[in-house]
Fold:
Amino acid sequence: MSEIYPWPGDYRTGDPSSPIAVVTLGRKLDFDADKVAIWGPMRTENLGIEKVIANVISNPNIRFLIICGNEIRGHKSGRSLVELVKNGIDEKGKIIGSPGAVPYIENISEEAVDRFREQVEVIDLIDINSKERVEEAINEAREKDPGSFGEPYTAIKIEKKERSKFHADFALHSSLRISPWGQITSFESEVE
Amino acid sequence: MFTYATEQTVHDLDGIKVGGQPGEFPTLMIGTIFYEDQFEEPRSSLDEAKSLVKEQEELSEKTSVPSIVDIFVYDKEEVEWKIDFALDNIDGFFSVDVPESEVRMRVLEYLDEQDSLDRVIYNSINLGMEEEEFELLKEKTPSGAILLAYNPHDNSTHGRKEIIKEGGQLLEDGLLSLSEKIGIENILLDTAATPFGEKACEAVRAVPVFKNEFGFPVGCALHNTIESWSWLHSYEEREKIFEILDTAIDNLPVLLGADFIYYGPIDNAFNSILTMALTDKLMAEGAQDYFGTEISEEHPHYKLP
Structure:
């Protein structure tokens, strides 16, 4: 986690004034830190995409999102990210048109998703592993930099707290009562 | 450590008993094979794959900790040769682990063609199940299924339980009810491993909650939590310590009564199965001494005196 990028993850950072972010999917690639703001792999079509959204919109200078590297088999997280920018999410948080296994955006607000879709243009290089080809795309995009999107947007993770009122006699979880003899039974609790 | 007041279902998977009270039966260990990058050329590595399957079997015989193989399938093109590998090299039950709904449907069709649905654990019935898959499952029903409690809307224990019970506001029906409508005989509940920072520990906490609430065998695949650990990706000796971490984390839910563990990949059978024998032995002795739990005949408690 850095000052600019609030959500922790497996990423590296470069010049924050660069308009480029690169998602390398299943590949580990390294880039010139003077040319790219943030880069790293992304494996999952739900939590992984949420981290990318949060860390991109926190830096308004990022205007291009290059997606490259081998698609994550099974998850289809790269294609899901492309579809997210193209179509957004439905009322249940599902990425419209995603071919991924469980493509839900749930820990980040719809407003943050909309901001992400407006802020970045996707450059689709899925299944391209040539660093030279990606660097070419980075240089081309830098030439077209439209400038900052405006203010940084700090995406707050939506926390669903599980709080229960209980009296005593619980351990591990508020729905379980463990007797002095170690037998587990239900504890009728009032969930807020 | 504990016993449950709720009646605990025990499944019989062709002689392998899974479920019951903590300490009653040894933990079912499920080792995954054909993960991406496990073999450089998977189709040319079948001898190596066979020897890994054999090693897991032998370790189970030595320890009385039962095991089955989990076949990972990514694409439709892989379905036939991977299922053929399982049918040719595995006696009894095996699990088929498939992330994509479309590929899962092809797996069902092929298993049906091979008349082998009765020896399969379908991994998994989850939030991503489409209507078409549900209908196909009713026609071509595997004997067993993992019900994955992953709930992106709420990954607390409560949220995970809701996916199983009522659909968690994302499905119209809970996965348990859907599985019963399909006619799954051997229902196994997976508490759904999540990464650190995403309530990873709730996959462990949910074990006793699920056991108490549903009474079906419960387990999880916590090696997924390790695989997504950011720190580990940058650690220079990742490969060296991964197996140690997998072995360590797999034992934790068993202390709370977990009945099965997906570990992996299957290369880690030696560490995982032997360590689980130790944990099972400890749990059984404690359950017998304290609660009078009857330990099953085939158990490390007797096999490894």
User: Anything to note?
Assistant: The radius of gyration of chain A is 20 Å. Chain A has two domains: 12-143, 161-192.
